[in-house]
Amino acid sequence: MYSQTTRSITVTVTPTFLEDQSSPTDDHYVWAYQVQIENTGNEAVTLKNRYWRITDSMGRIQEVRGAGVVGEQPLLKPGESFEYTSGTPLSTASGIMCGSYEMEDTSGELYDVLVPPFSLDSPYEIARPN
């Protein structure tokens, strides 16, 4: 589990390797990640946009941008949280993801909430000495 707080918004991510959807012989590895976004502040915020940076173990980077998450732009009032699950495939047995959510507060100010970097690990990754 990975967690980070930005301006009273705590983002917690739990990645899981999906063995049943992966095919190592075809260089296809799939992870799900569960995200919880919790508003511990004193004002409501709306998640407007998302940004993901996905890096595989070969250093190849994929960037993903879009409106909201899983088709929603959730409003989080003080003390509320929003959870969702999504996923990502890679052509390598491990990788790392990080990103941010663009939030809008009640005054219309936009700001980024960081998603902590989290590791995408599978049992197929071969450890290599430095």
Automatic annotation (TrEMBL):
One example of a Gene Ontology biological process annotation: error-free translesion synthesis
Stated name of the protein: Protein ApaG
Listed Pfam families: DUF525 (PF04379)
Organism: Kiloniella litopenaei
Domain of life: Bacteria
Database matches in NCBIfam families: PRK05461.1
Domain ApaG as annotated: residue spans: 3-127
